[in-house]
Amino acid sequence: MAAKRVFFFGGGKAEGNGAMKDILGGKGAGLAEMTNLGVPVPPGFTISTEACNLYYRYRGKLPQDVKAEISANLSKLERVIGKKLGDPKNPLLVSVRSGSKFSMPGMMDTVLNLGLNDKTVEGLAQKSRNPRFAYDSYRRFLMMFSDVVLDLPKGNFVDIFDEKKLERGAAYDVDLVAEDLMDLCGKFKALVKERLKREFPQDPLVQLELARDAVFRSWNNDRAKYYRKTNGIPDDLGTAVNVQAMVFGNMGDDCATGVGFTRNPATGAKEFYGEYLVNAQGEDVVAGTRTPHQIRDMKKALPRVFDQLMRITAKLEKHYKDVQDFEFTIEGNTLYMLQTRNGKRTTAAAVKIAVDMVKEKLITKEEALLRLEPQQIDQLLHPVIDPKARLDVVARGLPASPGAATGAAVFHAERAVEWATEGKDVILVRKETSPDDIHGMDVARGILTAKGGMTSHAAVVARQMGKTCVAGCDAIDVDETTNRFMVGGKIVHEGDFISLNGTTGEVILGKAPLIAPAMTGAFGVFMSWADAVRRLKVRANADTPRDARVARDFGAEGIGLCRTEHMFFAEDRIPIMQEMILARTMENREAALSKLLPMQRDDFKGLYREMKGYPVTIRLLDPPLHEFLPKREELMVEVTKLELIHADRSIIEEKKRLLERVEELHEFNPMLGLRGCRLGIYYPEITRMQARAIFEAACDVTREGIRVHPEVMIPLVSMAGEMRAQKEIVVAVAEETMRRHKKKFPYTVGTMIELPRAAVTADEIATEADFFSFGTNDLTQTTFGFSRDDSGKFIQNYMNRSELCPQCGAKLEKDLSCAVCKVTYTKRAENILQADVFATLDQVGVGQLVRMGVEKGRSTRPGLKVGICGEHGGDPKSVEFCHRIGLDYVSCSPYRVPIARLAAAQAVLREKKPGKGGKK
Ligand code: ADP
Ligand code: MG
Ligand code: MG
Question: How far apart (Å, rounded) are the C-alpha atoms in residues 607 and 802?
């Protein structure tokens, strides 16, 4: 016997059940499961997703054996109901409903009241003694079937319907009487004939076949495809078709139809939530035909049915152990359930519901922790744009740092600071940002750049600051000299209000209304459960006391990376920094450094005070020095200008000296040049100054009675000798300082592993290093040989090749044709990368270097403390990898700390139950 393709439900136990979503689709599985639970469900049968796939395989023809199975099930349905499809006296009417494995609300099609024709409508009218109801059902069917099956859009019918209401002075559909509806049915049929040059199909069996195939086809309509693409649902699953006896919510005032949730999907509150309409059918509630009533009002209007609905939905929730999103119809005071599924909800609601359900003993803490995607938590930490607001979206860039922001557009960091000090909200708009812009970024509500990728300067810094950022928005044309940007023919001037959605990448004109994040009590409880489970520690990357405080508030257990260079970009420091760099003698350099020392010491004191004994990893100066100097081209222009206006000779000379030095320091490949530990080895006085600042600050803060735990990190080490050279300096300063201050505290000196050679020789390096922190940004850069700042374009191409024309790179059409090259391909190109390696750790390559580094490092220094800092530390997949290979901690931007905490907990839970993930 061939495989079973059709599954009956009703009249006893169903042939399917709730676990069969793969073949019955979510809706079919739900209907079967409800039937088995004894919940009142109109009987019917589900044609499986496999039948849908056969339909596609045989190019629109369903195999004979499947058709036979359908007919047998139809006969069974007729028997169970005691009515026959097409019977002119007592007709069976059915709905033909789509439903795939993953819910795709409203994306596919459904036809109601099928089986009506000119004869059966009369039979229905007589049998029900309600002609109004019969013709109301017929006009609905004519319209829906034409729309879904015959491709004659609904709008045409709605126009005629509205005309009729106008003519009859009827405000709503319910105000029309039987004759009006009868007349409408005639008009609808005439429209079909006129437009399609054929009669509306009258044979109910033909109607059924056509509707079934239309539902199969709706799997591949554009809406559904788009939804699948954006939600990561595979294209080859197919939809099931549910053929179900109709029950009628449109027979009169003891009838109704509605939808609801067992808990509030926006807040998670345990309250019945939903809407219903009296004397109505299915789509009316959502279509806005009339204004629906709140479901709690049903308690008064239909008390008995309301109680029953409460009971049944509570039972369903208990059974599925999750919030249910349900659809129901009431016919003559009798309740029927038509659908149930786990409800979609906001993150805030998801947290509250998970916590409540643990308290109600419905689920365990472990289950609760697996119910959220770590990524989702982000929504709770930032303001969002009011979802009800109407927005003037003018462009879309990369969603570089989530949240939403609104403010006046400014084009320079100085102006940002100036206006922010006056209390104005500003959005900093730049072609791209550089370290010079930090102070402007710091005060801005959000950052918008025209260039750069997800790991551009703007994106990385914004994420660390927890600041909304839309990066790489190439639709905007920024002019930083005239202080404006052009977008789609519009001009935005300095001071004009704009808004950003960093979660979607949208750029919006005007002030978008924002909703502040609500840190509910449930969130704290939820996170405490995560903390109890995880083994990985979570630290934050923070350079300022303010970042450190945010990090602590979000539960960071230390600072994993403090980048000291950020401290030198402040307005009062950069001249001293430049003085230091321009110095020709060690003496002059030391003089400048001694001015920086007290400032740097204060920076560290602030961090220690915030971290109260938690470890603070401080990385010594890392970037190439030219980053602190004016750009060469700018200086050249300046000198020329000064000469033209015959400026004071001494000023010109000074600029020229500066230019000379900048040229001397010029490097072809600064990222591979004099930077990292090479700087500290070449100019040991820099390391000495920084070490002094670190340890003097520690002594001072210890004196205040606060515990400290500095960890000095040497950047960009590739040889054990480099580590040794720098460590000697740091240890000498540490010991000398502690002696001088008569203070003692624990401290360590370790290194960042961010070059392949360091990972490969980790055993040697570990003999010198107390700890390793994998700098996976640079490690990815150097392992792939991808420049972080220049690789955005081709990484995007590598990730999307299957969508693109292999010849010209244009986006392919659905049928794999290229509109530009006029070629149709037979297969798609292979994607070379599955994800952006700067956002999600490349486990196959870079990850292996990390794994090797850990193993080799611990082979010569057992118990070596190992962590990771960099963007990957806050990426859930990468966190799971870090857990698996036995790291001690991850460090990420403060706003990602809660995400990493949950990801670390889930890593433990997944390990316990192999193969069992959270939701997809
Ligand atoms: P969707 O997937 O778009 O929600 P459904 O197949 O659930 O489409 O159908 C939409 C609505 O049509 C249902 O919520 C219900 O109100 C109505 N409906 C579907 N089947 C029946 C039926 N057998 N009897 C009465 N109403 C039905
Ligand atoms: Mg539905
Ligand atoms: Mg680095």
Answer: 48
> So which residues are the catalytic ones?
457, 869
Q: Which ligand is nearest to the CA of 782?
A: 3
Ligand found nearest the CA of 95: 1
Pocket test for ligand 1, best of 112, 218, 337 (most atoms within 8 A of CB): 112
Structure tokens at 703: 């004196």
Mean pLDDT (the chain, rounded): 93
What's this model's pTM, rounded to 2 decimal places? Answer: 0.81
From 219, 248, 338, 341, give the residue whose CB has the most ligand 1 atoms within 8 Å, as the site to mutate.
Answer: 338
Instruction: Give the position, in ligand 1's atom list, of the atom nearest the Cα of 42.
Output: 23
Tens-digit pLDDT profile for residues 135-179: 999 999 999 999 999 999 999 999 999 999 999 999 999 999 999
CB 83 within 8 A of CB 90: yes
> Which protein residue's CA is at the shortest distance from atom 17 of ligand 1?
282
Ligand 1 atom closest to Cα of residue 97: 6
pLDDT value at residue 875: 95
Looking from the CA of residue 106, the nearest atom of ligand 1 is: 3
> Which of helix, strand or coil describes residue 617?
strand
**What tokens were used for 680?**
């500290």
Specify whether the CB–CB gap between 151 and 159 falls below 8 A: no
CA nearest to 410, candidates 364, 441, 454: 441
Distances (CA, A) of 158 to 116, 139, 290: 20, 11, 14
Read off the pLDDT band of 187 (50, 70, 90). very high
Closest CA relative to residue 333, chosen from 261, 275, 248, 244: 248
Residues with CB under 5 A from ligand 2 (ion): 327, 339
Which residues are near ligand 1 (CB < 6 Å)?
42, 95, 97, 106, 110, 112, 244-247, 257, 282, 327, 329, 338-339
Tokens of residue 566, six digits: 């950020």
CA dist 822 and 825 (Å) reads: 10
* Residue 518 confidence class, pLDDT cut points 50, 70, 90: low
**Cβ(227)–Cβ(107) under 8 Å?**
yes
- 226 three-class SS: helix
Is the Cβ–Cβ distance between 709 and 725 less than 8 Å? no
Task: List the residue whose alpha carbon is closest to atom 13 of ligand 1.
Answer: 282
Q: Is the C-alpha dihedral spanning 336, 341, 346, 348 positive or negative?
A: positive
Cα of 871 vs centre of ligand 3, distance in Å, is 11
- Is residue 257 very low, low, confident or very high in pLDDT (cuts 50, 70, 90)? very high
Under 8 Å between Cβ of 26 and 341: yes
Residue nearest to atom 18 of ligand 1 (CA): 282
Which DSSP category does 344 fall into? Answer: P
Largest Cα span, the chain: 108
Spatial distance between the Cα atoms of 107 and 810, rounded to a whole number of angstroms:
27
Q: What is the whole-number distance in angstroms between the Cα of residue 777 and the centre of ligand 3?
A: 7
Q: Are 41 and 338 in contact (CB under 8 A)?
A: yes
Ligand 1 atom with minimal separation from the 328 CA: 16
Ligand 1 atom closest to 339 (CA): 7
Q: Which long-range contacts (CB under 8 A, 24 or more apart) does 622-625 make?
A: 622/563, 622/564, 622/565, 622/675, 622/676, 622/679, 622/715, 622/716, 623/435, 623/565, 623/675, 624/667, 624/670, 624/671, 624/673, 624/674, 624/675, 625/581, 625/665, 625/674, 625/675, 625/679
The mean pLDDT value for 265-290 works out to 85
**Radius of gyration of the chain from Cα atoms?**
34
Pocket probe for ligand 1: among 41, 95, 144, the residue whose CB has the most ligand atoms within 8 Å is 95
Proximal ligand: closest to the CA of 274: 1
Ligand nearest to the CA of 776: 3
Both tokens of 378, joined, read 């982000």
Q: pLDDT band for position 626 (50/70/90)?
A: confident
CB atoms within 10 A of CB 740: 11
CA distance 242 to 240: 7
